[in-house]
Amino acid sequence: MNISGYTGALLRIDLSRRQARREPWDLGLAERFVGGRGLASYLLYREQDPAADALGAESKFILGTGPLTGTGAVAASRYVVVCKAPLTGTIACSNSGGFFGPELKFAGYDFAIFEGRSETPVYVWIDDGRVEFRSAEKLWGLTPAATDEQVRRETSLMAKVACIGPGGEKRSLLAGVVNDRARLAARSGVGAVLGSKNLKAVAVRGAGSVCLADPEAFWLAALDALKKIVNDPVSFGSFRAYGTASLVNLINEMGAYPTRNFLEEVFAGAMPTSGEAIRDELLLRNRACFACPIACTRVTAVKDGPYQGRGEGPEYETTWSFGALCGVSDLKAIAKAHYLCCDYGLDAMSAGATVACAMELFEKGYVPGSDIGFALRFGDAEAMVAAVRLMGERRGPFGALLADGSYRLAAHYGHPELFMGVKKLEMAAYSPRVFQGMALHYATSNRGACHVRGNTVAAELYGIPKYVPPETLDGKEEMVRRPFQNSTAFVDSTGICLFSKFAITHREIVSMLAPATGLDFTFDKSIVQGDRIWNLERLFNLRAGFAAADDTLPERMLEPVPGGPRAGSRAQLHQNLQTYYALRGWDERGVPTRQKLEELGLEDTWQVCR
Amino acid sequence: MEVTVRLFASLRRHRPDLALGQPLTCQLPERATLADLIQAVLGPLPDEVAIMLVNGQLQAGEQVLSEGDRVSLWPPVAGGAL
Fold first, then answer.
1. A212 located within any domain
2. What's the mean per-residue pLDDT of chain A?
3. Per-residue pLDDT tens over the stretch A310-335
4. N or C: at which end does chain B have fewer Cβ atoms within 10 angstroms?
5. In the CATH hierarchy, which fold is given to the domain comprising B2-74?
6. What is the rounded radius of gyration, in angstroms, for the C-alpha atoms of chain A?
């Protein structure tokens, strides 16, 4: 059988025995779980006990690509990192662009599954069909950028590298996987899993290409999608000009910009930290991922002063997490904190949120200054950067607490109510007290309070696909479920970047998927595929011990906004959670019913779940 | 009546004399709408203005303005994901 779109193979790497073997995977799974997020999650579900220790030798770590990754389809650069999340205990699926994902495809693999644990630091060099295990003793302690350079020097300058920084080596629960020097599959602590396996890096070089079942139809569809993206004022306009940080002033003016650990929703110091200010003061140039015309990445530099540095970003979420959330309006300090997180290989969203939590703990007197070593107050830029260094280096008992995120920090000091997240994952820069869709989404997202699993702000602010006022409750359950959560699950499984979706829909995506793979991908099937993937992730979490009680928000989000244009607004989750469960085909405990699982063809997993 | 307006993102290029976030004070007749204000400030460019806040609330072009209103304007912008 000719295989197109996919390579049809996975690479299984046993780190304990230092063995690697190529295996075919069942292509019958492609039409059920698509690829990327969906298929890698299925592989994890099948191979790992969800209740197992995320950092144990028995845990698995999967790198996965989608059927469009590396085909040349517009913005199809993504790869996923799937494992059990050490930060949250949920299923983890972090993804990233750049060039690493396409290169894995070119080497002949849709997935790479890492098992076991190396006795000593190691890196894996995948050179097409050849796999080598090499010592990473000399790489240990290096930043991702330095690791990338050294590994390419030792292997091939054409190699693409995914690795961990010192944060992952120290098993920080905020550590991500860094590819192409500075791009992070950031959230859920996935980098700590590599650290626990003593796996510093994966380098890959592929001389192959991705076969297409019907090249003519594929390229016609790909050109159509490309035209739509370059004619779109968001994708090809604001993303290129300002990155995502063009939202800073807008969300702040709306009164929905979480400030000082979510105590307030308006930040008086937002303007100097906005996308406009980043463009005026820090931007050097844009950078693009594989096959992407958008080029949203901002290469920036702080050229002088105490916060001197250079890197990619900050973007909306991190100019917020180190800015408004910490009460800091010094853009150079924010950029420095962001660069440091890249150097340590940490999730800069959760890192900033953890510093903000520490600031509130300190200001309320719950953490003695002697534990920290300095005063850590809201608005103190120097202290904020110093706290990021403590965290990244895991220095001392307080540094170790910071390195494991705000849930554990707040709980350690006896004030878990100061943790601003869900399922131990910190929230993003869209207040659920204002955006009722985000309230329901944060509470029910399969990886905790993550915004990119169903960012309803698109509807509640930009009017995509249709404007629904943020405060409206009616209909939000279906909106969260289908056009956001399920749709995102599908798109993340194809290999296409979510940023393309401001200009194209499932229709354009399936128009590329079908001729790329030769399989019967259709719009209607994509809706069911997204639903199936969402339910599969839910089953993993239920088996890991999560329950309806975990589908909730911090108490503070249920209290009224204290001031600003949205004063009095609060998250009204209790009014729509049960309706959401019912629409999903789940019982009142949030467990998928037998009927729902039969509808999705997930009976086999249901049997395990019982 | 007097209202203030601020331009963000690419709309700033229409008034390069204004610093980031600097409000522009406009005199408008009573019962003037948001669309009237945009016409007065930016000329005939309604397509470029996508997001309009009046005192922090999302509004459409037909919204009638009042004395002292704070208006903020954006082109199409977005973030996060979809």
1. no
2. 96
3. 999 999 999 999 999 999 999 999 99
4. N
5. Ubiquitin-like (UB roll) (3.10.20)
6. 22
Q: Are residues A406 and A506 in the same domain?
A: no
Question: Phi and psi of A424, rounded to 5°?
Answer: 70, 5
Shortest CA distance to A100 belongs to which of A146, A54, A151, A64? A64
Q: How far apart are CA A189 and CA A79, in angstroms?
A: 17
| Inter-chain residue contact B81 with A280, CB threshold 8 Å | no
Q: In this structure, what CATH number is given to the domain that contains residue A465? A: 1.10.599.10
Residues of chain B found within 8 Å of residue A498, distances taken between Cβ atoms: 81-82
Same domain, A417 and A455: no
Is A329 inside any structural domain? yes
Q: Does B61 touch chain A (CB under 8 A)?
A: no
Nearest CA among A114, A93, A264 for reference residue A186: A93
- Position A462 scores a pLDDT of 86
The ipTM is: 0.96
Q: Which residues of B touch A275 (CB under 8 A)?
A: 9
Q: What is the number of other CB atoms lying within 10 angstroms of the CB of residue B70?
A: 15
A65, containing H or E segment? strand A61-65
Of A234, A430, A488, the CB nearest to B77: A234
Half-sphere exposure (Cβ direction) of A477: Cα atoms closer than 13 Å: 15
Among A155, A184, A205, identify where a domain stops: A205
Are the beta carbons of B10 and A237 separated by less than 8 Å? yes
Q: Write down which residue in A422, A447, A466 finishes a domain.
A: A422
Q: Give the closest-approach CA distance of A254 to chain B in angstroms.
A: 4
CB contact at 8 A, A545 and A421: no
Question: What CATH number is given to the structural domain containing A369?
Answer: 1.10.569.10
d(CA A38, CA A30): 9
The verdict on A293 and A442 lying in the same domain is no
Maximum separation of any 2 CA atoms in chain B, in Å: 41
Q: Is B22 on the interface with A (CB under 8 A)?
A: no
Hey, is the C-beta of B16 within 8 angstroms of any chain A C-beta? no
Which range of residues forms the domain containing residue A559?
A: 436-609
pLDDT, tens digit, 9 for 90 and up, residues A495-540: 999 999 889 999 999 999 999 999 999 999 999 999 999 999 999 9
Residue position matching structure tokens 């939000």 = A476
A354 and A255 both lie in a single domain: yes
